[in-house]
């Protein structure tokens, strides 16, 4: 569609409905002369938008073959003019929309209708190369730069990626093959990466076959990731689900993840680069997570944690056929800290380990890491855990001369598998207490007796991210 045509759509086809109490701001596409059918669609969001348009208005073709990168980028660029006038939303209707990477804008919603599929282009030249993250200083797959993510944004405010459970398909097989054959010149792209931004919502979508990590908010704050389904083959490399990285005030809830790596991986930079950048991940809520990952963890803290991780609250976690429940990964040279971690209510089925902490996780960014940069691991709390068919209850390995301290476990029942390890607990260089834990833990975790089973208290005060309320937004969808 020519520019004059889509401007007419925006000017005459979009009206701003006034603010209306609990319903919030509503935007509708209104075209009284149209003979097409339409229906009103309502969804929840941190912000509603005054202006709406369809990717079709910018020449997009959802046939699975036509490349729509320019259409998406032009749509975002043109809609950005409404940032100070109630914001805008781009509707992706049902169809298969092949596209390379495109950048998002502020006060903007990308809405994927039911049966809409964004297909990531497999043409490498559709993926720009950008610098490594400053808190990493090095690519993860290769030294130097990294391919930009499919959906990317930096220095933004008020960004929403949502829909009627529409799909983003990364078509990652090509990238996995290049990774395994060591033919990557740069680090693989992620599906969604938002940097240096504030007020972000990613919700009600299905993400498939990411080339690497799926959702990566970094150096950002006030983030909600909700109602996401993430699916990748369990042997696909580094297909982490959700990776909060040097982020503050974030809520991850009601997500279902099957992946080849950690379902949620909390990070804050790598070795000397993360130490220098010095931006921790803090005030993080993870609740109602269901995870399947036979070779990784439901929740991992690290291994890139050199900027620090603090005040993580996880509850109502279900893991099935997953290597470990909660895993803390660090090493000499990481520096930083992981402290004030609270886990309550885990239900685990078929696990290699329930608890795993290691101070021997290598994989340094380069040869310049500081052997005197020791991580601080303390105040790690678990309570109300039930696990069955477990090979080993725990593998807890601190660092010689740098013990992991303040470990607390209460009301934990672990049923061992028929072919479980002879010794269910392995503990070195740790300190902590337990109450009501079965099988009985190692001596380094001092048993306080069953009467103390209410210890390892979960914080009762709320975090700011829980005070962010969703509005009811609606618009009329013509089809």
UniProtKB/TrEMBL annotation:
First and last residue of the signal peptide: 1-24
Protein name, UniProt field: Polygalacturonase
Family as reported in the entry's similarity comment: Belongs to the glycosyl hydrolase 28 family.
Keyword match Signal: yes
One Gene Ontology term from the biological process aspect of the record: carbohydrate metabolic process
InterPro entries in the cross-refs: GH28_Enzymes, Glyco_hydro_28, Pectin_lyas_fold, Pectin_lyase_fold/virulence
Superkingdom per UniProt: Eukaryota
MF annotations from Gene Ontology: polygalacturonase activity
Keywords attached to this entry: Glycosidase, Hydrolase, Signal
């Amino acid at each position: 569609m020519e520019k004059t045509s889509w401007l007419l759509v925006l000017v005459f086809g979009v009206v701003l409905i006034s603010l209306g109490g609990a319903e919030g701001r509503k935007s509708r596409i209104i075209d009284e002369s149209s003979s097409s059918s339409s229906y009103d669609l309502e969804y929840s969001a941190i912000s509603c938008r005054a202006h709406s348009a369809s990717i079709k208005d910018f020449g997009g073709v959802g046939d699975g073959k036509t490349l729509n990168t320019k259409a998406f980028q032009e749509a975002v660029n043109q809609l950005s003019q409404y940032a100070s006038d109630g914001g805008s939303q781009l509707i992706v209707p049902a169809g298969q929309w092949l596209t390379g990477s495109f950048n998002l804008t502020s006060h903007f919603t990308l809405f994927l209708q039911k049966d809409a599929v964004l297909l990531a282009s497999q043409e490498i030249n559709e993926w720009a190369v950008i610098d490594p993250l400053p808190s990493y200083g090095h690519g993860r797959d290769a030294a130097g730069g990294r391919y930009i993510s499919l959906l990317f944004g930096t220095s933004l405010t008020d960004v929403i990626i949502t829909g009627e459970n529409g799909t983003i398909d990364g078509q990652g097989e090509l990238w996995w093959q290049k990774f395994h054959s060591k033919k990557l010149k740069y680090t693989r792209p992620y599906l969604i990466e938002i940097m240096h931004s504030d007020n972000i919502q990613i919700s009600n979508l299905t993400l498939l076959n990411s080339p690497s990590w799926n959702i990566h908010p970094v150096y950002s704050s006030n983030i909600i990731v909700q109602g996401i389904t993430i699916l990748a083959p369990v042997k696909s490399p580094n297909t982490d689900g959700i990776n909060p990285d040097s982020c503050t005030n974030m809520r991850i809830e009601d997500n279902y993840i099957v992946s080849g790596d950690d379902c949620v991986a909390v990070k804050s930079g790598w070795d000397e680069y993360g130490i220098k950048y010095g931006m921790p991940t803090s005030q993080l809520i993870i609740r109602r997570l269901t995870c399947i990952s036979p070779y990784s963890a439901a929740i991992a803290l690290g291994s890139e944690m050199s900027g620090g991780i603090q005040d993580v609250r996880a509850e109502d976690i279900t893991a099935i056929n997953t290597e470990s429940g909660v895993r803390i990964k660090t090493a000499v040279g990481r520096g930083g800290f992981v402290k004030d971690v609270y886990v309550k209510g885990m239900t685990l089925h078929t696990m290699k380990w329930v608890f795993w902490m290691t101070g021997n996780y290598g994989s340094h960014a380069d040869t310049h890491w500081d052997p005197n940069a020791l991580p601080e691991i303390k105040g790690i709390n678990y309570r109300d855990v039930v696990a069955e068919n477990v090979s080993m209850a725990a593998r807890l390995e601190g660092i010689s001369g740098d013990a992991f301290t303040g470990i607390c476990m209460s009301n934990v029942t672990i049923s061992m598998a028929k072919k479980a390890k002879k010794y269910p607990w392995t503990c070195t260089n740790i300190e902590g207490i337990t109450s009501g834990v079965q099988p009985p833990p190692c001596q380094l975790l001092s048993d306080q007796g069953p009467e103390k089973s209410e210890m390892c208290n979960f914080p009762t005060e709320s975090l700011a991210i829980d005070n962010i309320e969703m509005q009811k937004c609606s618009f009329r969808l013509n089809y």
